[in-house]
């Protein structure tokens, strides 16, 4: 199929989608008459009767009928622009037209689907009122989307475009929750109860004043959590790498059995031994100290397993033999030669270990009693007490403050993840 014929087929399929937007496929059945409408003019009649039980379970986005109306308008505008681009591409084809077409197709399909699903979930009274659709809507929509996907996958350029679109959507879905958290930190409790907003408000200082009123010492909690997380992550990475190197570089009796025991310990939930761990810490007098939160990080079965699998695939014994010939000790070879080779895997495990230590709530709750030693998760939990449970703006602000170090750690270490596996090693 030539490129021109493909564009002609795209015009046909886009025209069908456009007709679906203006075809009266949505029907609201009322006691006196039936109101038929298209996706483009989707409006819920003002005299429609809702079911009381279903109304309590309904989502505000479904009940806000203006969103349904505007979503239908955006869908038809997207397909109309798409049709114009396809017609223009027959004679004046540009690569940006192909990329824009995919985004317009995705946006139009998403808003069309939102309109249909919103109508389907209206909590109307099923005895006197009903909402229905024409079966042609479903069949035509499935056929058109299937045809579009098959046509786009035929082209290598379009395949890359689809990858960009999917990656953009995934990035958007990943970032939106964090953005909503940051925005809610600037909003009042009343505004948050009204629904989701993507625009900041003016209550940031008020929320911060509420935090100070409830003795939320962000600096102290930040430093306590940072102290525990940094030391725990450092010990976890170093001793796990050292253990994994021992399993790979040395051959000794019982190595497979010991490694099997380490892997087997991963199957046991940590909370199972919490009572015995608490009793041991109490008897040796380490309650209300940071050591019970730091020392256990030296033994991380999952990290040892991950490092061992990495070294088993990338370790070359010639590297250590060359170090021994040069007179280096075993510690020197590990610290200077082997440890730098593991930078990519250290970055990945470092992020996971730091996040796990920073977000750890159960163990500090069990060990720490002094308010001056509490970590950020414990302080945030205290904000959900009896008198504070309605101050959602301040709670979101506290969560935002607690999340800042996690963004910084990922920002500094993520570049090592995409680097070569043999970073710092000698290539043979």
Automatic annotation (TrEMBL):
Pfam families membership: BPD_transp_1
Membership in a protein family: Belongs to the binding-protein-dependent transport system permease family.
Entry keywords, A to Z: Cell membrane, Membrane, Transmembrane, Transmembrane helix, Transport
PROSITE patterns: ABC_TM1
SUPFAM superfamilies in alphabetical order: MetI-like (SSF161098)
Name the record gives this protein: ABC-type glycerol-3-phosphate transport system permease component
Membrane-topology annotation of the record: Multi-pass membrane protein
Intracellular or extracellular location(s): Cell membrane
Lineage of origin: Bacteria, Bacillati, Bacillota, Clostridia, Lachnospirales
Transmembrane segments: 68-87, 99-117, 129-149, 161-182, 226-250, 257-278, 290-311, 332-355, 395-413
ABC transmembrane type-1 domain: residues covered: 222-414
């Amino acid at each position: 199929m030539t490129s021109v014929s493909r564009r002609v087929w795209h015009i046909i399929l886009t025209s069908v989608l456009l007709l679906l937007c203006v075809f009266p496929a949505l029907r609201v059945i009322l006691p006196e008459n039936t109101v038929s409408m298209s996706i483009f003019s989707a409006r819920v009649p003002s005299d429609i009767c809702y079911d009381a039980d279903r109304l309590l379970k309904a989502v505000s986005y479904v009940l806000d009928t203006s969103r349904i109306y505007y979503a239908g308008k955006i869908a038809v505008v997207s397909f109309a622009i798409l049709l114009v681009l396809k017609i223009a591409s027959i004679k004046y084809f540009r690569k940006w037209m192909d990329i824009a077409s995919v985004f317009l197709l995705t946006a139009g399909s998403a808003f069309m689907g939102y309109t249909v699903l919103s109508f389907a979930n209206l909590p109307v009274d099923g005895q006197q009122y009903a909402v229905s659709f024409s079966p042609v809507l479903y069949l035509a929509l499935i056929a058109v989307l299937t045809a579009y996907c098959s046509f786009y996958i035929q082209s290598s350029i379009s395949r890359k475009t689809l990858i960009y679109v999917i990656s953009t959507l995934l990035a958007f879905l990943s970032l939106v929750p964090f953005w909503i958290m940051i925005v809610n930190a600037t909003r009042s409790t009343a505004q948050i109860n009204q629904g989701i907003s993507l625009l900041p408000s003016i209550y940031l200082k008020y929320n911060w004043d509420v935090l100070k009123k409830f003795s939320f010492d962000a600096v102290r909690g930040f430093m306590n959590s940072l102290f525990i997380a940094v030391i725990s992550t450092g010990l976890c990475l170093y001793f796990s790498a050292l253990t994994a190197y021992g399993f790979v570089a040395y051959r000794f009796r019982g190595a497979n059995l010991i490694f099997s025991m380490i892997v087997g310990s991963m199957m046991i939930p940590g909370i199972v031994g919490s009572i015995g761990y608490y009793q041991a810490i109490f008897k040796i007098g380490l309650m209300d100290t940071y050591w019970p939160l730091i020392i256990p990080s030296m033994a991380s079965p999952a990290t040892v397993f991950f490092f061992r699998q990495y070294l088993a695939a990338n370790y070359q014994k010639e590297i250590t033999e060359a170090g021994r010939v040069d007179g280096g000790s075993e510690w020197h070879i590990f610290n200077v030669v082997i440890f730098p080779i593991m930078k990519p895997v250290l970055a990945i495990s470092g992020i996971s270990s730091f996040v796990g230590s920073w977000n750890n709530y159960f163990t500090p709750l069990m060990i720490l009693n002094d308010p001056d030693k509490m970590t950020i998760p414990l302080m945030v939990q205290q904000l959900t007490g009896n008198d504070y449970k309605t101050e959602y703006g301040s709670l979101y602000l506290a969560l935002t403050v607690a999340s800042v170090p996690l963004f910084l750690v990922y920002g500094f270490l993520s570049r090592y993840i995409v680097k070569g596996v043999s970073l710092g090693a000698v290539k043979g």
